[in-house]
């Protein structure tokens, strides 16, 4: 499986962004998929995950602001980010949970105050 995240950018605090993750190769529709992020100087952390049955789980820091979706037919996983805060600034990646696929290229999200 090859994963590529895109859709990041620069946004003001309070704004929104929609990230997409495209998967190619042997897409495993049976995998729990997730978004992770890595802020400068910090460890990569789990942001949100979604099961094949579309049950979701969120980090406390993003609950109520972020939403994760998946479209198995299109091999995509979406992260809708609303009410963005400066502390959401990071490089965002998608992967399975646990992260068993090779890490693909992330997408930079920068939230300005």
Query: Which percent band covers the strand fraction?
Result: over 45%
**Can you count the helices?**
0
Biggest β-sheet strands, sense, barrel:
6 strands, mixed
Helix content: under 10%
Query: Tally of extended strands?
Result: 10
Overall mean pLDDT stands at: 94
* Strand ordering within the main sheet: 2-10-9-4-5-6
Rg calculated over all Cα atoms: 13 Å
Low-confidence stretches: none
Structural class: mainly beta
Order of helices and strands: EEEEEEEEEE
- How far apart lie the N and C ends? 37 Å
Oligomer: single chain
Q: Based on CA inertia axes, which overall geometry fits?
A: globular
Features:
single chain, 113 residues, mainly beta, six-stranded mixed sheet, four-stranded antiparallel sheet
């Amino acid at each position: 499986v090859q994963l590529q995240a895109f859709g990041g950018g620069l946004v003001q605090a309070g704004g929104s962004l929609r990230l997409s993750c495209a998967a190619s190769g042997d897409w495993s529709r049976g995998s729990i998929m997730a978004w992770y992020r890595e802020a400068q100087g910090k460890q990569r952390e789990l942001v949100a995950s979604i099961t094949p049955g579309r049950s979701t789980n969120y980090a406390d820091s993003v609950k109520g602001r972020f939403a994760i979706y998946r479209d198995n037919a299109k091999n995509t996983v979406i992260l809708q980010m609303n009410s963005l805060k400066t502390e959401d600034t990071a490089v965002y990646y998608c992967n399975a949970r646990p992260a068993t696929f090779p890490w693909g290229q992330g997408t930079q999200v920068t939230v300005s105050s």
